[in-house]
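Could you please consider the sequence and fold appended to this message?
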Amino acid sequence: MARIKWRGGEIKGHLDIFVSDNEDEDDGKIRKWQEVLIHGDPEGLRTFAKLLIKIADLNQEQETETELPVGAREHYHLRPNWELGKSSVETIVGRLDAKGTGLFYDRYLAKDDKKDAIKALQKYIDEQH
């Protein structure tokens, strides 16, 4: 696949991406968490999906060193009032794997496999009761 040429405004329709800060109290324990909410009309969601597929399908190894240096990752900025609604936060979507090495960045922690996740969930439930 050829290099993606970004001109801005690739998202058609309406798309809103924002972070929700949440807090809940249970038996005196306060639990805080964040959620990223992505909402759009059909056209906005479809063009967002197409953008994600283009990024995923891009062969980073075929990019020249000038276009994408070894160790870099293809990414795209979604900006409020340009690709996103005015109520959105700037969002960067991109590849986790680096060109030339395939390495993920240091802060990434892989999800647990399903068996480990089920055990962790059961432990959490048991601790709550």
User: Anything to note?
Assistant: The chain has one domain: 15-128.
